[in-house]
Amino acid sequence: NSKTKQKIKERAGISSKSITILLASEPLSKDFPFNNLIYDEYSILLLVNNAIKCLQKKNLQLIVRLHPRQSRSEFYSFLKEKDIYNDIIISSRNMTLAQSLAIADIVIGITSVYLVKALALGKPTISLQFNPKLDYVQIPYLEGIKIIDPSMLDFIINQKISNNSDTKISLPTSSVKKVWNEIIPLLSNSNV
Predict the structure, then answer these.
(1) CA angle 13–18–22, rounded 5-degree value
(2) Which of 78, 109, 132, 176 could form a disulfide with 24 if both were Cys (CB 3.0 to 4.6 A apart)?
(3) For the segment 153-189, what is each residue's pLDDT rounded down to a tens digit?
(4) Cβ pair 28, 111 in contact under 8 A
(5) Cα separation, 63 vs 173, whole angstroms
């Protein structure tokens, strides 16, 4: 419910009136250390942040959900170095996947299963596949939401904000049930 969503946003330092754009980060530079990555997790973060700024909408908030193998201190240092520390919120270690999905108005990632969960819930979702030489994990559900041209990012984000919903993907019933079973306790818990 919206009260629970508002409480989670407050705990994360996000205004209840903000449109929350969640970036599910992935450790590309660790997963592909010998490939010549054109875009790693840091440059993707900069691209997403810049695309959001280009939209010139005051009520947008970027929150980054780090992959468990990513270093929080490295990310904080990067944000300070690039002077974007005040623009971006890194989700708390205590924020569950279900909580982050509950507050996200738009979900952006690369090829994470997290994106499939967002799609199953009907969340506007974007898969960033900007590295042409990488063998991305082929997840059929992501084909319709992937973008390969970084220059299109602000346009696509704006489109997702305007539409504010995506077509829910059709997953086997047990998969959808598992996603909802993670979310329902959160929504019904009044102590959140």
Answers:
(1) 75
(2) 109
(3) 999 999 999 885 555 555 555 665 666 666 555 545 4
(4) no
(5) 30
CA distances (Å), origin 18, targets 3, 103, 163 = 14, 10, 16
Matching residue, tokens 């660790």: 30
The predicted model scores a pTM of 0.85
Q: Phi and psi of 166, rounded to 5°?
A: -120, 160
Q: How far apart are the first and last CA of the chain?
A: 11
Q: Look at residues 128, 135, 168 and name the one whose alpha carbon lies nearest to residue 23.
A: 128
Contacts for 8 with CB less than 8 Å, ≥ 6 apart: 95, 99, 102, 103, 192
How far is 50 from 91, CA to CA, in rounded Å?
19
Residue 15's beta-bridge partner residues? none
> Which DSSP category does 144 fall into?
G
Looking at residue 190, its pLDDT comes to: 37
- What is the pairing mode between strands 19-24 and 106-109? parallel
Is pLDDT above 60 for 191? no
Q: What is the DSSP letter of 64?
A: E
CA 112/CA 99 separation, integer angstroms: 17
Q: Supply φ then ψ for residue 61, to 5 degrees.
A: -130, 125
